TrEMBL record:
It comes from the Bacteria. SUPFAM superfamilies: CheY-like, GAF domain-like. Pfam families: ANTAR, GAF_2. The keyword Transmembrane helix does not apply. This is GAF and ANTAR domain-containing protein. Residues 186-247 form the ANTAR domain. It comes from Mycobacterium paraterrae.
Length: 255
């Protein structure tokens, strides 16, 4: 799993580079870069982080911090499924759709293998010829794809797009890796908050549906829940979907 070696960063070619080298190179960065990273770091402590807002903030800050990135995209990867989530710029959406349909490309490789993928010259890269041709047509001539992960949890990847070959220098790559670490933590927190919010909303609507059934059928809370569960199986819908119908209409959905 990525990150098992605390002092190294994984790359597609299989070797690990000492992280201390990257920290030395970061000394040449300007104040604006570190200020932007500080903003994202403080965002980790927002208890009510909204997932969509966090995704947008990550991408907007990425293109601000890494100035050679003209476009950016964030993709989730779960249970073998690659799912584009948010983009900044015109190039990523079409290229993400192509990767989804073909099942291959630098973003998928970075997400699946949890390695940093670098494409210095898109028009001469032979690993994903169909993707490379589409990228060049969109004026994307270099890419940097970075894995997003927290502890043992794989989240996906952050992709940066350059409009010139060799857009991402070593210092850009080191900064991008540091940024990806902050972004992964912010994303994980936002996902947990979003899941909790959804769980609370589901509990509330189930409670409303139970109350309606209890009054309508003169049954106990446990019996009302059993009615919801049985109807869920009968109509082949999730329990919360059945509860939403009851809460909205007052009656159980029919198959």
């Amino acid at each position: 799993m990525p990150g098992s070696a605390a002092n190294s960063a994984p790359h597609l070619d299989g070797h690990h580079e000492p992280m201390s080298q990257g920290l030395d190179e970061l000394e040449v960065l300007g104040d604006s870069a570190f200020d932007a990273l500080g903003v994202l770091s403080r965002a980790l402590h927002l208890r009510e982080a909204i997932l969509d807002d966090t995704l947008r903030a990550i991408l907007e800050l990425a293109t601000s911090v890494i100035r050679s990135a003209d476009h950016a995209g964030l993709n989730l990867y779960s249970n073998g499924r690659f799912t584009p989530q948010a983009t900044v710029g015109t190039a990523p959406p079409e290229l993400d759709e192509l990767q989804q349909s073909t099942g291959e490309g630098p973003c998928i490789e970075s997400s699946r293998s949890q390695v940093t993928v670098v494409v210095d010259e898109m028009d001469s890269d032979s690993r994903w010829p169909r993707f490379a041709a589409a990228a060049v047509a969109k004026e994307v001539h270099s890419m940097l794809c970075l894995p997003l992960w927290v502890s043992e949890e794989t989240l996906g990847s952050l992709s940066l797009y350059g409009t010139t070959p060799h857009a991402f220098r070593d210092t850009d790559r080191r900064l991008a890796e540091l940024f990806a670490t902050h972004a992964a933590l912010a994303l994980a927190d936002a996902q947990r908050t979003d899941q909790l919010r959804r769980a609370m909303a589901s509990r509330d609507v189930i409670g409303q549906a139970k109350g309606i059934l209890m009054e309508r059928h003169r049954v106990t809370a446990d019996q009302a829940f059993l009615l919801l569960k049985k109807q869920s199986q009968r109509v082949n819908q999730k329990l919360v979907e059945v509860a939403e119908t009851v809460a909205a209409t007052g009656v159980l959905p029919e198959p």
